[in-house]
């Protein structure tokens, strides 16, 4: 029986051993897909994405907000650094307020028609360097600032959530040049995982484990 939490409810999980027992062991692919740099395969992914969610934390609480521009709007400066332009918005600047207090950030990249998503965890700082702002001019307008994000970890998320939600049902084709889950794993493991076999078996495995 689960331990009771402060409210006395025996159905609340309050310890890591309970949580681990509930979900079981982590698969090899799920462990090996996480790397501390922007691997070239992940760079392809980021450069093909027109949309990301930015999560931050600060004294006022948590924030998750969307960011978007034409594909490639987040620039991979090097394997440890991403550049994210901050465009004009509603001036709430919840994310930026949080970053001033706590630099930790998380990004979730989406590509229309692709079930997998890409996750980046790191630390951000806010730059108003003129040359950097000029690099991101769109329709004659520079961003208000640019986030320089030092990457801690990068990994992709499986497609089950997208499949359950049917989010991309109207999108019929995967965009050219976006690596598949198998291709990502093969590149990240130096062919330790057979990408073609992984992709071939993935639809059946996902259907069997969707819920």
TrEMBL record:
Which stretches make up the Pyridoxamine 5'-phosphate oxidase N-terminal domain? 39-158
Q: Name one Pfam family in it.
A: PNPOx_N
Q: Which NCBIfam families match?
A: PPOX_FMN_DR2398
Q: What protein is this chain from? A: Pyridoxamine 5'-phosphate oxidase family protein
What species is this protein from?
A: Caenimonas sedimenti
């Amino acid at each position: 029986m689960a331990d009771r939490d402060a409210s006395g409810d025996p159905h609340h999980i309050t310890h890591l051993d309970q949580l681990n027992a509930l979900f079981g062991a982590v698969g090899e692919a799920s462990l090996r897909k996480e790397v501390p740099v922007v691997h070239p395969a992940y760079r392809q992914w980021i450069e093909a994405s027109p949309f990301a969610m930015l999560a931050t934390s600060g004294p006022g609480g948590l924030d998750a907000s969307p960011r978007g521009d034409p594909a490639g709007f987040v620039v991979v400066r090097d394997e440890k650094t991403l550049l994210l332009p901050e465009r004009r918005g509603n001036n709430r600047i919840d994310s930026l307020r949080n970053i001033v207090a706590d630099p930790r950030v998380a990004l979730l990249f989406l590509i229309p028609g692709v079930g997998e998503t890409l996750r980046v965890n790191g630390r951000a700082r806010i730059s108003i360097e003129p040359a950097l702002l000029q690099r991101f001019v769109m329709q004659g307008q520079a961003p208000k600032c640019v986030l320089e994000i030092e990457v801690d970890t990068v990994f992709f998320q499986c497609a089950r959530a997208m499949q359950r939600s049917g989010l991309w049902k109207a999108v019929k084709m995967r965009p050219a040049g976006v690596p598949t889950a198998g291709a990502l794993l093969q590149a990240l493991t130096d062919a330790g995982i057979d990408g073609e076999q992984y992709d071939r078996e993935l639809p059946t495995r996902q259907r069997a484990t969707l819920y």
